[in-house]
Amino acid sequence: MPLLTQLAFNDNYGLTSKFLGFILDCHNLTFMDLSHNKFNGTIPESLFTNLGNLKYIILTDNSFQGPLSPKISHNFKLKDLRLGQNHFSGLIPEDIEVLFNLRTISLYNNSLEGRIPSSISQLKGLSRLSLRINSLNSTIPSELGFCTNLIILSLYTNSFTGEIPPEIDILTKLQYLYLSENQLSGSILVELGKLTQLQALQLASNELSGEIPFEIGLLTNLLILFLFNNNLFGSIPPEIGNLKDLDLSGSIPHEIGNLNDLEALGLLENQLSGPIPVELGKLTQLQALRLASNELSGEIPFGIENQLSGPIPIELGKLTQLQDLELGSNELSGEIPSEIGILTNLVILSLFNNSLSGSIPHEIGNLNDLEALGLLENQLSGPIPVELGKLTQLHALYLASNELSEEIPTLLGNLRLLFSLSLSRNHLTGEIPQNLVNCT
User: Fold this and answer.
1) Which of 67, 161, 200, 304 falls 20 to 30 Å from 346 in CA-CA distance?
2) What is the residue extent of each domain of the chain?
3) What is the pTM of this model?
4) Which position has the higher pLDDT, 255 or 322?
């Protein structure tokens, strides 16, 4: 096989490390893709020293372990290095700048630690850097700003500390910036507003503080914005309404009603306060709404574990694309509107721990895709509607701690997928139907 230039066994062929010995004499090999196999142990150093013509090394999704070999610097022609989803440990080699032709570095989902070498600034052609899901624990080097061709920078789920370097504003080609699930501190940089090509900005689950800068509204190509689980406070800039292509975001200005195609809104676990604007009722494409653990108040009932009060408005029925509605642990009162039954895309309906009264609307039986229904810890009365027996996708039904009465409908036995049922602390009579006794 000495004249072989390309090698691809990347579809779960079940190859093991013994196979590597057969390719060490393929000195002309330029492309090697052995991803999704069963290789383990360390990569033989001879793989790098013997195959100096390699431009593409793709070993993703195996069980390689040990440190990254320093011999990898022998492959100075290398353009694409993909070693993600293995068990590599130790440090990223300091002499990585020797691989000046690199366009892609993908080392995600390993156990690498330490820092990103400052020498990475020499990789002028680097367009994709993915180091997510490792144990890197330094600051993000300002030298990344010299990698001006970066399109994807993925560093989430590590232990990076310190502030986001302001030099990141030099990366004007950047389209995807993933920094969630670290220990980053300081404020959200106003300089991020210069990255006008950004389609995804994820800063969630850090220790960021301060207000959301109005410059975020300059990112008009943004599709994804995650800011939850930080220490953000203050008002939300109305400029967020400029992000008309946004699919997943975090903001509650009145201008959010302009985002006609918005499918999900997430601002949970911050310190946002004040009322939720009525303009949310215009978001007819909304599928998921998550505003948990803030300090929101007022009568518009969108959120979880806030202090929202008043009745659930019938206008909720306009959000026909909604899949996830969780309003638990508030101070909601009044009856559950029958308009809930219009939301036929709902998968989760959670209204637990409120002060809701009246009967459970029969129209809930129209929610054919519903998998979880949580109405426990309210003041609901009357019988359990027999229409609940039509919810054949239901996995969990929680009606405990209400004032429900009469017998348990035998039609609940139609819920073949039901594995969790809670009916205690009500005024139900009769026996539990035999076909429900196996529910936990």
Assistant:
1) 200
2) 299-440
3) 0.60
4) 322
Express each pLDDT in 61-96 by its tens digit.
999 999 998 888 888 899 999 999 999 999 998 888
pLDDT number for residue 331: 81
d(CA 264, CA 342): 19
Work out the average pLDDT over 147-163. 95
Query: How many Å separate Cα 8 from the centre of its chain?
Result: 32
CB-based contact 88:63 (threshold 8 Å): no
Average pLDDT over residues 31-57: 87
The residues pairing with 202 across neighbouring beta strands, listed in sequence order, are 178, 226
Spell out the residues 6+ positions from residue 3 whose beta carbon is closer than 8 angstroms to its own: 28
Over residues 171-181, the pLDDT tens digits come to 999 999 999 99
Tokens linked to 165: 């370097």
3-class SS string, the chain: CCCCCEEECCCCCCCCHHHHHHCCCCCCCCEEECCCCCCEECCCCHHHHHCCCCCEEECCCCEEEEECCHHHHHCCCCCEEECCCCEEEECCCHHHHHCCCCCEEECCCCEEEECCCHHHHHCCCCCEEECCCCEECCECCHHHHHCCCCCEEECCCCCCEEECCHHHHHCCCCCEEECCCCEEEEECCHHHHHCCCCCEEECCCCEEEECCCHHHHHCCCCCEEECCCCEECCCCCHHHHHCCCCCEECCCCHHHHHCCCCCEEECCCCCCEECCCHHHHHCCCCCEEECCCCEEEECCCCCCCCEEEECCCHHHHHCCCCCEEECCCCEEEEECCHHHHHCCCCCEEECCCCEEEECCCHHHHHCCCCCEEECCCCEEEECCCHHHHHCCCCCEEECCCCEEEEECCHHHHHCCCCCEEECCCCEEECCCCHHHCCCC
The tokens describing 389, both together, are 């027996």
State both tokens at 155.
């560093």
**Distance (Å) of CA 367 to CA 156, 183, 264, 359, 389:** 36, 41, 20, 17, 11
pLDDT, mean over the chain: 83
Residue 400 pLDDT > 50, yes or no? yes
pLDDT digits (tens, 9 = 90+) for 2-30: 567 787 776 666 677 677 777 877 788 88
Domain 299-440 has CATH 3.80.10.10: yes
Structure tokens, 184: 């980053």
Among the listed residues 377, 331, 327, 372, the one whose alpha carbon sits nearest the alpha carbon of residue 353: 377
